[in-house]
Amino acid sequence: MQVQNDFLVSVAVITYNQKDFITQALESVLMQKTKFRFEIVIGDDASTDGTTQILENYIYRHPNKVKLLKSVANLGPMQNVVRTYKACSGKYIAVLEGDDFWTDENKLQDQVNLMEENQNLSMCFTNRNIVDVNGSVIREKWVPPAYRRKLTCKEIITGFTPPTQTILFRKDLLDEELINNLKKVYNGDIYISSVLSTKGDVGYVDKITAAYRINSDGIYGKEDYFRRLKNQVKTYQVLLSSLDNTYRKDIQRTQIRVKQRLFVVSLLKGHLNYHLKMLINLFIHDVQTPDYSLIRAFKLLLTKGVIPSKVITD
Length: 314
Prior knowledge:
Helix content: 40-55%
Structural class: alpha/beta
Number of strands: 9
Strand content: 15-25%
Radius of gyration: 20 Å
CATH superfamily of the largest domain: Spore Coat Polysaccharide Biosynthesis Protein SpsA, Chain A
Oligomer: single chain
Shape: globular
Order of helices and strands: EHEHEHEEHEEHEHHEHHHH
CATH architecture of the largest domain: Alpha-Beta Complex
CATH topology of the largest domain: Spore Coat Polysaccharide Biosynthesis Protein SpsA, Chain A
Number of domains: 2
């Protein structure tokens, strides 16, 4: 089970200005009980709030386990993710953002067992809880029952994205094209899960092993939801250009659903030029592929149920 560098798993911790939460995140990794050695690779994107000093203390205490990547200037979320993944030396990479944390001491061992026993899996995930800024659970078992099992590429591409803080994947599947395209997208979770799902099935460990923390950055208003949807359209466009035609229809269907929401949200927020752009886009799509996407967009507009009061993101 061991690999030459002696680290079977690299835990990629992504952080920026999270001094109030980073200790809990790192302690939740260090508590893992495993039969293998693992490393913690931290990408700190030029934090200015004292996070870096906390991280340096962990390097001092765990010099053979913790690796810290510093930044002189802010790189941006995806550039930070990419350089952190590149610095990982394990056979597998697990991901944790600095304001989230793991809740199960056997998380890594359980997931590695699943991956080692099923070589057809490209990645795996678990269930999670949603917690507030103080760590109190506000929603249990976030993963819908229909997705608590092994998933196919089609199920991932058409809309279900495994929770970021629960995933573990094979590092050797991160080829140069995937890495380069990660730099182009905002929704790295959507992109990497979609691409990896084309390289193997996506396994599931039926346990709650992590907590996703909603803080000031995790609660989206309508304006932020508009930007989030725009970013998703761009992410699916990159997927269209990077995956072969086998997946084209599924990606397009998912992208159209996002555009339908944008059609509504852009009007409600007064972005009339973008609203017109989506109207034309959906009309052209219906001319080329008659599936009444524009009619469904108008139905969404009538219900106005497209905008949640709180949007939980990964």
